[in-house]
Amino acid sequence: MRQQLEKERIDGEAARQLLGNSQFKLAWEAAENSILEQMEEVSMRDTEMHTRLIMARQILHNVRHHIETVLQTGEMAEFQLNQPRTVGKRSTK
Fold this sequence. Notes:
The protein has helices spanning about 1-20, 20-40, 45-80. The chain is mainly alpha-helical and about 90 residues long. The protein has one domain. The chain starts with a helix and ends in a 12-residue tail after the last helix.
């Protein structure tokens, strides 16, 4: 259990660094802007291209969602790792 939490913590930290990386941010913005520009430029009759661009944008956002989920899981793992071990100890009041 502790090994799994430690792995999640490490993965979460890597996700935090990735999301905070200036080159990643620039690449993300460039990719999203490119998709949006193409959506504006493509003919309204070209439904196939519109569909592909919508799918590309959804995939892009799914990638970000996955990275953010890894970050949140890592934060929760770190919280659990920092909790004092109380297994078997009960308060008797």
